């Protein structure tokens, strides 16, 4: 059995993975809070998609591969199958998106939260073990069934709590605390699943094919940066509840305001009356003799 090191670079990789999970959870909770306040199905779909990308793509998937940067097996190199790695991304985002769709439509109840958490938790576990299956090394991967089952239970519980928080938490401080809690749960699930792994090396070293860690690091970091920047921009550009209230108030003022009749300028010294009189047929124009003498 080969020696496994989960923290080859010390505390850097677990600290970064936790930071990613907290950041993605925070942005995801903020986006999910907009789902139930959205005015139309298009807005609900948009905010649900952003929340799924934040939680599934950043808090779960990017956190997983950031933690995998510190994973090493003595006696073999580690490579990754790119199609399977991409498939794990789709699984994570889709699972979270469907879970949000379950709890984000209609009246929120315990059955919805439990059902969405069960589906999402299984999807998160599937993402984790799909990402593990994408590893290519000179050996065979074996898992302890008990710890695998425990990691799945942790994923289901974490997903259920995350969905419940996404639909109920609104305050900034509460969202930050919930994100910290979700970061602990996601990392706990990951390292519990990793502790179930054992590697048996092959007798002879074979050629290991696939993308290296450094090759995957650049696109992962760029994807995280673009996702985070896009989410922050979407949140800043979206109208808040105060903006909607102000717009509704101004619209109500315009509707309730009485119609103002156009006002005419006052007639100076009866010029309008004189012009009307002079314009009648048969009315003589004043002569110079009729004019008053100059003073």
TrEMBL record:
InterPro entries: MHYT_dom. GO terms for cellular component: membrane. Residues 9-200 form the MHYT domain. The keyword Transmembrane helix applies. Keywords: Membrane, Transmembrane, Transmembrane helix. The chain crosses the membrane at residues 15-33, 45-72, 84-103, 110-128, 148-166, 173-191, 211-236. Residues 258-295 are annotated as: Disordered. Pfam families: MHYT. This is Signal protein. It comes from Micromonospora wenchangensis. The lineage of its organism: Bacteria, Bacillati, Actinomycetota, Actinomycetes, Micromonosporales.
């Amino acid at each position: 059995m080969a020696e496994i090191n989960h923290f080859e670079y010390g505390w850097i990789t677990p600290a970064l993975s936790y930071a990613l999970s907290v950041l993605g959870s925070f942005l995801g909770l903020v986006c999910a809070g907009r789902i139930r306040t959205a005015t139309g199905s298009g807005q609900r779909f948009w905010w649900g998609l952003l929340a799924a990308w934040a939680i599934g793509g950043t808090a779960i998937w990017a956190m997983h591969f950031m933690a995998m940067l510190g994973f090493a097996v003595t006696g073999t190199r580690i490579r990754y199958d790119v199609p399977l790695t991409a498939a794990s991304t789709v699984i994570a985002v889709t699972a979270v998106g469907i879970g949000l769709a379950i709890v984000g439509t209609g009246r929120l109840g315990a059955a919805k939260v439990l059902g969405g958490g069960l589906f999402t938790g299984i999807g998160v576990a599937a993402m984790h073990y799909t990402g593990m299956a994408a590893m290519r090394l000179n050996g065979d991967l074996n898992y302890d069934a008990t710890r695998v089952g425990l990691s799945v239970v942790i994923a289901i519980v974490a997903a259920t709590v995350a969905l419940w928080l996404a639909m109920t938490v609104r305050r900034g401080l509460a969202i930050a605390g919930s994100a910290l809690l979700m970061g602990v749960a996601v990392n706990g699930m990951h390292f519990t699943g990793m502790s179930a792994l054992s590697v048996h090396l092959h007798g002879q070293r074979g050629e290991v094919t696939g993308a290296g860690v450094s090759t995957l690091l650049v696109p992962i970091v760029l994807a995280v940066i673009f996702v985070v920047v896009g989410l922050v921009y979407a949140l800043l550009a979206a109208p808040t509840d105060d903006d909607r209230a102000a717009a509704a108030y101004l619209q109500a003022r315009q509707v309730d305001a009485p119609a103002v009749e156009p006002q005419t300028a006052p007639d100076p010294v009866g010029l309008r009356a004189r012009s009307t009189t002079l314009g009648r047929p048969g009315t003589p124009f004043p002569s110079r003799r009729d004019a008053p003498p100059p003073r």
